[in-house]
Amino acid sequence: MIDFSTPKPIEKQMVALKTVAENMMRPVSRYFDEHEHEVPWDYINFMHMAMRQTGAGSLAPKEKKSADEKKKYPPIGYQSLAFMLEMLSWGDVGMYLVTPGGGLGAAAVEAAGTPEQKAKFLARFKGEKPTFAAMAMTEPHCGSDTSAIRTTAVLDPETNEWVLNGEKIFVTAGHKALELSEGFVVVWATIDPSARHAGMRPFVVEAGTPGVKVTKLEHKMGIRASDTAAIVLQDARVPYDHILGSPEVIKEKTTKGFKGAMATFDATRPLVAATGVGVARAALELLKEMLAEQGVEIRYGLPRNKLTAIEREIIDMEAMLRSAWLLVIKAVWMADNRKHNPLEASMSKLRAGDVVTKITQRAVELMGPLGYSRQYLLEKWFRDAKITDIYEGTGQINRLVVARNVLGYRGSQLR
Q1: Are 182 and 124 in contact (CB under 8 A)?
Q2: Are 254 and 329 in contact (CB under 8 A)?
């Protein structure tokens, strides 16, 4: 049964993470927002060293546990990540996105790869140098309609290599994965454009692969410490076994390849939601501090009709924030326990995207000129917030996913 209390190993981890957020992220948050694409190497190197020593935040293969050990120590991998990401995003969500490790690319390997592929590609994050991974799905002509991707993968029978051609945009950490580390990008391509979803397959494209080039770094409204890249693949050759999945998925035109993409999102959408919760918590806490300095205290426990308008609004925001966090906890608990969670994953992402946008916007509005000015981080958090509702499935797409699961419709029946 799900337990909403914080596991003790995670409680200890949170003390250290809060120290990082307060002392390594907040003091330079404004600087890296104003110096987009400048890499915070001090933070990256520190986090890589710390994560190597503790194993925190990693999807790298771990030693198998016995049945008794599993019962005594329930799995908390995704739960641990959710708490970690929430706290680091409370520090600075843009800087969190440059934390070394697998990110969405490793999550794709975890969701769609074979045991041998997981061991091969995920182990590199335990190396001596910071390593990054990314996932490339979006293309210039299609956003949410993933079945319309045009990047192609053709098997060369003479060399037994896959030849990839196409262009990908909005690749989070693509620059760091391909040009600043010995990482990789999981590229979604089609082996048969006419097959739509059934033709989709994920390919691991490693840094240094000939024919792969980062062509652009986006200038963004928020999360400016994180790079968002455009990537062109021109006759890029990758080994045969770099296509993720079983031989059945490789050879047959089935929707299992597409289901691998969706399984990736089922695991990562709650983690994206956790980052939104962290930003919202940062804004709400600062808002309450600023109001307290003006003599406005929240009188909890009184009937609503005896509260001021601002007190009611703060309490409502706290309830919104709590509801979003509980949805995150449920979704990651299900992921840890290998339970099917597409409904819960999309609900958590949808709720967090709404909540962080509303809370940060209202915090700016309530503080007036102080909220709009660059004297405080409220305006930055407002800009950082909106991406939660956009990447890894927009709010509109997640509403469709929720509706389909609740009503029992297939994608073709409800668009």
Answers
A1: yes
A2: no
Domain residue spans of the chain: 258-407
Question: Which residue is listed with tokens 């993933």?
Answer: 146
* Residues marked as catalytic: 392
pLDDT at position 61 is: 46
Closest of 239, 299, 224, 258 to residue 30, by C-alpha:
224
Measured N-to-C along each axis, helices 342-372 and 309-336 cross at an angle, to the nearest 10 degrees, of 150
DSSP 169: E
CA 345, 351, 356, 357 torsion: positive or negative?
Answer: positive
DSSP 8-state symbol, 53: H
User: For 142, phi and psi rounded to 5 degrees?
Assistant: -145, 140
CA distance 106 to 345: 18
In this prediction, residue 285 carries a pLDDT of: 98
User: What are the residue ranges in the chain where pLDDT is below 70?
Assistant: 1, 55-73, 247-262
Predicted confidence at residue 297, as pLDDT, reads 92
Span 258-407 CATH architecture: Up-down Bundle (1.20)
**pLDDT tens sequence across 24-70:** 999 999 999 999 999 999 999 999 999 888 766 555 445 555 555 55
**How large is the angle between the packed helices 378-385 and 256-293, nearest 10 degrees?**
160
Tell me how many degrees the CA angle 336-341-346 measures, rounded to the nearest 5.
120
